[in-house]
Design goal:
Blueprint: H1 12-15, H2 20-43, H3 56-75, H4 83-100, H5 105-111, H6 114-118, H7 125-128, H8 142-150, H9 157-195, H10 204-210, H11 220-241, E1 251-254, E2 271-273, H12 276-282, H13 287-309, H14 321-339, H15 341-352, H16 367-388, H17 392-415, H18 428-436, H19 443-451, H20 463-477, H21 481-510, H22 528-540, H23 546-568, H24 576-581, H25 585-641
Antiparallel strand pairs: 1-2
Length: about 650
């Protein structure tokens, strides 16, 4: 049957599993996609596809592949790509995008030369901490650093040579992390996917788009939703090019300007946005999560107002929203482990060779191999951190907290698919220092924790949930787990080095110090943030803050209570994931679309039931698809012609 066409039009040898041609196609697209993303997110500072859970850049690439596949099907059908191959490319693109994304290597590269370049006699950074930063992890060469900020030719040996050792060392660190993420997902896949049957809402659109026979494209409602989104984005795109055309007001700006009296002026940032794709994403979420996202968003706002009303704003950090959210993430992780505890016990027995019911046949790699790699990975991270100068007493709690965060994010994505999971400035680097107090920590430890800030600033473009979602799509599309595991590993290696190259190439070309690139409120593309924080830690020398530890405990307790109540009361409306993610930057932009989606979905389910919801869903998938396609087109248009262009998000 090899080489013969099936009834789907796909040759049998390509029908199931991962193929080398799909992997090659993914590898060819990763550099193009990475270049596009960095041009959007830093050079032009608009669009930001890697700040939401569903990367619209990957959806756009998938749509282009489907169009090309349609042409192949018509003219040379024996080369048509199967669903499994399209999914392989899509997953590889997601991994590459996450690595070059907004909370990943683009921040690391901007940090590496910052401290040495901006050290002055006035700030005393050279004597404070620059000499504590390992030469093999940062760039201190004056010529290379000056040209990085002022602009120059990356391919001049004087510019690229000082980067070689730091880039290779950090690449090893990144690749070990990626391998550990893959191995954790191997151990969790069967439990979460087959036993607990988590829903993975974010895989629905790519699976529907790539389904054999393209049933989604035959739905009229899909095209109605697509047309609505296209009409809005085309009109607003023309309005950006020709300001005399009035824009359709879907971005109404910050409404906090209307709250000018105490205590209401403590409400903080309050944007009001009507993103069509946000409404579409919301329709994929459970009703209780939708309700909880907007309810707890206002809960955090009321906390701030009450803090001011009661006169507690003089307490530093009050009301400790980040710390409460961090506690909530930890609660989600612990609850997920408790629910799956029998599985973990069986894994432990399997590892030591005891009698167990564990069956890892058909898994990407054996469970024992995955656990051995995790032990190797932890040993490597420990050695790396000790070599950098981090104390042994900090390394273990740091990485326990970090991997707990990773598991929590992956769990909430698998179970519920929240559109955002930022958690800015509440990673283990910040939490440990808050608990212990900068005054009680050495300059060396604080310096290395600052270097680790790049993968803890926020958790939007995180690779681990995309890997597990890839395994879920493999299950649905009857693909080879082992083949996809290899494809993701290859994508991780190529994506890492591609990200470094793209970022360095563009920042040397434009000059990282150029006022025309990067965020207007965050000078020098985030590189300043960890070192200004370090400067504050060393000069102010704050003691242990017990209030922040209490806030973490409060967030953790609330999450565990909410989870317990949901297990006992079927109609309980408050979801702990909503409590955890609703304080984030992204949720400030999405609270209103999710509220609208909650009203629509609740109405449909109440008066039409699940049948009507399934019938209506293509309309909302069309909203997502339309904005992904036209929004991506406008960013590409702007890049090609070097003109301002419309960005539908954020």
């Amino acid at each position: 049957m090899d080489g013969k066409l099936l009834d789907t039009g796909v040759p049998a040898k390509y029908r199931f599993g991962v193929t080398w041609r799909a992997i090659i196609a993914g590898l060819l697209l990763i550099p193009i996609n990475s270049y596009w993303i960095f041009m959007m997110e830093i050079i032009r500072y608009q669009g930001h596809p890697t700040t939401i859970s569903l990367f619209y850049s990957s959806i756009f690439n998938l749509v282009l592949l489907i169009i090309v596949n349609g042409l192949i099907r018509r003219w040379i059908p024996k080369f048509v790509f199967s669903q499994g191959e399209l999914i392989t490319i899509y997953v590889m693109l997601n991994i590459g995008a996450a690595l070059v994304g907004h909370d990943s290597l683009q921040i690391l590269v901007c940090m590496m030369p910052f401290a040495s370049y901006f050290a002055t006699p006035e700030n005393k950074w050279n004597t404070l901490f620059v000499n504590k930063l390992p030469d093999w992890l940062v760039v201190k060469d004056s010529t290379a650093v000056k040209n990085f900020y002022m602009g120059g030719n990356l391919y001049d040996p004087a510019n690229y040579t000082p980067w070689i050792v730091p880039v290779m060392c950090w690449s090893a660190f990144v690749l070990v992390l990626l391998g550990m993420f893959l191995c954790i997902n191997v151990l969790l896949r069967k439990q979460w996917t087959e036993r607990e049957k988590l829903s993975y809402p974010l895989v629905q659109l790519p699976l529907d788009l790539t389904a054999e026979g393209a049933p989604l494209f035959k739905e009229k409602l899909l095209w109605y939703g697509f047309a609505i989104a296209v009409a809005i984005d085309v009109w607003n795109g023309l309005s950006t090019l020709y300001p005399s055309i009035p824009a359709i007001p879907i971005k109404l700006g910050d409404q906090s300007r209307y709250f000018t009296t105490r205590p209401w002026n403590s409400i903080g940032w309050l944007p009001t946005q009507f993103y069509p794709f946000g409404i579409g994403l919301g329709m994929l979420l459970p009703v209780d999560l939708l309700f909880s996202c907007w309810f707890f968003f206002w809960f955090w706002k009321m906390e701030r107002i009450l803090t001011a009303a009661l006169g507690y704003e003089t307490v530093r950090g009050m009301p400790f929203v980040n710390e409460q959210s961090f506690g909530a993430y930890m609660g989600i992780c612990i609850f997920a482990i408790l629910v799956s505890r029998r599985h973990f016990i069986e894994l432990g027995k399997h590892f030591i060779g005891a009698k167990t019911s564990i069956d890892d046949k058909g898994e990407p790699i054996s469970y024992r191999a995955a656990m051995w790699f995790l032990l190797f990975g932890m040993a490597f991270l420990t050695y790396f951190s000790r070599k950098a100068g981090l104390s042994a007493s900090i390394i273990i709690p740091f990485f326990i907290i970090y991997f707990a965060m990773c598991i929590a994010i992956t769990r909430m994505r698998a179970e519920l698919g929240p559109p955002a999971h930022d958690l800015h400035y509440a990673g283990p680097d910040q939490i440990i220092v808050n608990f212990v107090g900068p005054k009680e920590m050495s300059t060396q430890n604080l310096s290395i924790l600052s270097l680790y800030w790049w993968f803890n600033r926020a958790y939007r473009s995180h690779v681990m949930p995309f890997q597990l979602e890839g395994f879920k799509m493999a299950e649905r599309a009857r693909m080879s787990y082992r083949g996809l595991f290899a494809a993701m590993a290859i994508a991780g290696v190529v994506g890492t080095f591609t990200a470094f190259w793209v970022i360095l190439h563009l920042l040397y070309q434009y000059g990282a110090m150029s006022s025309s690139i990067g965020p207007p409120n965050v000078p020098l593309i985030f590189g300043s943030e960890p070192f200004n924080r370090l400067d504050s830690w060393l000069k102010i020398q704050m003691p242990t803050d017990i209030n922040r530890a209490i806030a973490v405990g409060v967030g953790f307790t609330v999450t565990m209570v909410l989870n317990s109540l949901r297990m006992q009361i079927g109609w309980f409306p408050f979801h702990p994931v909503g409590f955890a993610v609703s304080s984030s930057w992204s949720m400030h932009l999405l609270w209103l679309p999710l509220f609208i989606a909650w009203v629509i979905k609740l109405t449909i389910l109440r008066y039409g039931g699940l049948k009507l919801y399934k019938q209506a869903l293509p309309l909302f998938l069309g909203l997502i698809l339309g904005e992904c396609v036209v929004g991506s087109f406008w960013t590409i248009w702007g890049i090609i012609f070097r003109i301002p262009s419309y960005a539908f998000w954020p």
